[in-house]
Amino acid sequence: MTLPFEPLADDAPAALRGLDLLRIERAGPVLHVRLNRPAKRNSVSDELLAQLHTVWLHIAAIQPEIKAALISGEGAHFCAGLDLSEVSERNVTQAVHHSRSWHACFDAIQYGPVPVIAVLHGAVVGGGLELASSAHIRVAEASSFYGLPEGTRGIFVGGGGSVRISRLIGVARMTDMMLTGRVFDAAEGQQHAISNYLVGDGEGLAKGLELANKIAGNAPLSNYAITQALPRIADLSASDGLFMEALIASIAQGDDAAKERVRAFLEKRSHKVAKS
């Protein structure tokens, strides 16, 4: 299937050009960022991480037109994790700063201006699973498999996985994966809530684009409130979370776009919720 992705326009921010380890395209309101190290199974080198971070630092500059984003991987795999060839070159202090650079990049994705969908296939391993967990929705193809081999390699997750992945699958399951090297296939990943959608091989981008276009049709403030407030409310006590919920709900309902959508529903100009 041919998808309607096109190169960025000439007036896109200069910082988004010349990022040779990424392929950046768009389809209408949807930005598509593809990891482009297929010969290395899209393992994350320092330079790839820096380029990925650069995209999300500048995405706000094209955000009025871009309302959702996709992340995928070129070649046979989404991302095989950290480029281990760079690990031995760091001392402890450098390793701490390196880990924090991963946190900064993935925080920029999770808490950026637009919702993000990760389209997964092949290896989603180590840092690749950490990257996927920073997205808001994950679409997995049947070839996807998931692993956290850090324990068997004498290292520890350093890209936010101890927080994000444990929230997706639970501490006990993550502990099992790290201690034993257990690998989940696509069906198990769906069962354990790593992925939100499971599709056939070669169908992930089409499904991701379909979902991204739906998301892009929402009120921007509502999308922003959902992606920013929900994870923060989850960190609060119940009473504090309910108070924040009331504040966010009031702000969202006061937005002009929200008022127009409510009027459209009451005037029967928009559809009711129904099972598709």
Automatic annotation (TrEMBL):
| Keyword Transmembrane helix set for record | no
Domain of life of the native organism: Bacteria
The family database entries (CDD domains) matched by this protein are listed as: crotonase-like
Q: Which UniProt keywords apply?
A: Lyase
What is an annotated GO biological process for this record, any one? fatty acid beta-oxidation
Q: Which Pfam families match?
A: ECH_1 (PF00378)
Show the GO MF annotations: lyase activity
Describe the family membership recorded for this protein in Swiss-Prot or TrEMBL: Belongs to the enoyl-CoA hydratase/isomerase family.
Q: State the protein's name.
A: Crotonase/enoyl-CoA hydratase family protein
